[in-house]
Amino acid sequence: MRLIKIIKWAGTILISCTAIGLLIGYFAYQQLITELPDINALRNVQYTQPLNIYSQDGLLIEQFGEKIRTPISISQTPKALINAFIAAEDGSFYAHSGVDFKGLSRAIVQLILTGKKKQGGSTITMQVARNFLLSNKKTYTRKLKEMILSFQIEQAFTKDEILELYLNKIYLGQRAYGVAAAAEIYYNRPLAELTLAELSMIAGLPKAPSSYNPISNPSRALLRRNYVLKRLLDLEYISQQDYDTAIQAPITASSYSTQRELYAPYIAEMVRNEIINRYGEQTAYSAGLKVYTTIKSDLQNTAVSALRNNLHSYSERYSYQINEEQKLTLKASNKIGDTIPATVLEINKKQLTAQTQEEERVTLYWKDSPWSTKYSPHSQKTQAISSYLDIIEPQDTIRLRKVDGQWRLAQVPQAESAFIALDPKNGAILALTGGYAYFNNKYNRVTQAKRQPGSGFKPIIYTTALEHGYTAASMINDAPIVDTSGSTQESEWRPENYSHKFYGPTSIRSGLRNSRNLISVRLLRSVGIPAATETALRFGFSEEQLPQKLSLALGSGYASPLQMARMYAVFANGGFLINPFFIERIESSTGEILFQAEPLTACLNCAAKRAPQIITPQINFLMNSLLRDVVQRGTATQAKELQRTDLAGKTGTTNDQKDAWFNGFTPYIVGVAWLGRDNSQSLGRFETGGKAALPLWIDFMRYALKDKTEAELVMPEGISKVLIDPEEGLLAREQSPNSIWEFFRTEFIPTQYMPLKAPAPEISGDTINEQQVTPEALF
């Protein structure tokens, strides 16, 4: 009887406790329900994706962002990969309704036996709930929330939809998020091209991306991969033959960073800054934006190669620099530009043998060395050298670069350079390199440098003069000038020509062709500084760049290569001021076009937005004629090796050869080359624009114009071609022995004829006889 009472009492307590437990559970469940996020958020998932920057022709330039991810649909995912993940992570995925109670029970038993909370019992659905909707903090309530959310997800989404979310979200090591990114990072191939063994390796990563990483822990990764393969066999996803083949496969994973297909880091940084300004840093780095630039990959590669080769050529004209890097270990040195480090193993008077970081042995012969002197910054002395022994010791770290397929001794140039090419019709930047090696020095000299343009600015002065009634035949006296506008005698300015000579009466054509400084100064003094300043402002310069003194005639202000390219584009496109741009379009991660460039275009009758016309067709024609003459007979005649008559431009050299420029163009393309030192030290005697910068421009244009027909310079209405006497600029009679053809605006044709006389002696090469100049040479 007593036993029955005890049983009843115990039953009552049990029922009461159960009821209380259920009640507590119900209220706890209701509380958890209120804390749960809405699973409908999974229907509009925005995956974190990096910013991708491409060339005009679709080559990847750069990728910015911590997470590398390429979302892929379940229909594009190999079935073998899906099976591998199910085998590794959730064998009963297709059978359960979100929670695998057997797996969960095992995790609970482990907790009781070890007293430790470990990840376990989580289905793929539960991982989706945690990764998308919950934090990664391990708590009992989080596990309950996972379970509840998993039931809800299974009711609202298909199994394929759940798998797609999972496979695109999971972290797989090496900054790879999602299976498509992992395939590229580990194997440099798309998922569809991976073997069963490689797919199984990826499927084994979610459990512990670091511990099972095939790059850092290949032995553990192999064990994990083989476990996945065995699970696939046990679940009958693969045959015994498939298993036997895959289990024997070696680890083929490697560390593949995002494969940059085009070297254009300066433009990439410009794009990055622009995208951050437009959309903010968070969106820039995570929204998966795709930016297509105006850069043409073949022109970009040509620009980089031409710039580096030209800098090395300049460097090799001077002494070999003894530097501290020679004593660094090979491991401590990096590839810089075209140069790679190597350790000297053997050396004698005639040759040396060195080994690169890739363990390639290279033999260099002294007879092929470009250097004959050395310079030590410690002694500050230059000395003659006769062998490698004079500059290198065994175990030194030297630099090599390949020239025409052969290794040769090299150094990282101490000078720097910049080059930009743009389309003069609309301002699209086609190629840009702001220095020798971006990752060695990120300063972008194309956009950030403030350098004196030197004689490259003179076309502004000549344009102003032509607009004020001067002609190409106007005679200016090339004679000494003393500017006494300064407050003291010491501040008197006495400009000189580069040759330190005076040439007497000189035509404007000859003055610009030969870059006569005194002609430019006299023209500026005649037309007035305000008039020249107004012209420069029309060409896009700002007032602060234009000193209000006569030295403006010689380019004593400042400009960047980008600004100079914009200036010369005016002459190239018929007289229109374009706005340089470098972003063609911006797309969302799904391909929606967010921005499409609509640049102002140089045209008179076209559907596009028209750029402002800042000089008349007649002035533009005359300036083109003058600037073509610079190439044909002036300071840039080296460019004649391109064997074209449509090349035009102007060299520029500043005081003490601190800057060397060539600003050149055809109607198809504008290119500006600059060479100098960041500390504004001299480049060296005779390092003029024609010597130091022009070869870079020529190398680029040789490729850029190879498929372009020569563009004829067509006379517009209002221009006449007249026979004149070159010594006086007056009309010449046909029987005059020294007469030449010249172009004039019709209203400014000379009205006086030159009296017939015997031929006068030439003045320092400026006088040109009829045999030297034909009408065609002036086009």
Give a topology summary.
Blueprint: H1 2-35, E1 51-54, E2 60-64, H2 79-89, H3 101-114, H4 124-133, H5 140-156, H6 159-169, H7 179-187, H8 196-203, H9 218-234, H10 240-247, H11 265-279, H12 281-286, E3 290-293, H13 297-315, E4 320-321, E5 340-347, E6 351-356, E7 361-365, E8 373-376, E9 381-384, E10 397-403, E11 406-410, E12 416-422, E13 429-433, H14 458-467, E14 475-478, E15 504-507, H15 508-513, H16 517-527, H17 529-538, H18 561-572, E16 583-587, E17 593-596, H19 617-633, E18 648-653, E19 659-665, E20 670-676, H20 689-704, E21 719-724, E22 740-745
Parallel strand pairs: 1-3, 4-8
Antiparallel strand pairs: 1-2, 3-16, 5-6, 5-10, 6-7, 8-9, 10-11, 12-13, 12-20, 14-15, 16-17, 18-19, 19-20, 21-22
Explain the overall architecture.
The chain has 779 residues and is an alpha+beta fold. 34% of the residues lie in helices and 15% in strands. It is built from 20 helices and 22 strands. A 5-stranded mixed β-sheet has the order 2-1-3-16-17. Strands 7-6-5-10-11 form a 5-stranded antiparallel β-sheet, with no helix packed on it. Helix 9 (218-234) runs antiparallel to helix 10 (240-247). The protein is elongated and about 150 Å long. Mean pLDDT is 89; it is low at 762-779.
* Low-confidence sequence ranges: 762-779
Give the strand tally: 22
Structural class: alpha+beta
Shape: elongated
**Count of alpha and pi helical runs:** 20
C-alpha-based Rg, rounded: 37 Å
Largest sheet: 5 strands, mixed
Portion of residues in beta strands equals 5-15%
Question: What separation lies between the terminal Cα atoms?
Answer: 128 Å
Mean pLDDT value: 89
Q: What's the helical proportion of residues?
A: 25-40%
* Strand order, sheet with most strands: 2-1-3-16-17
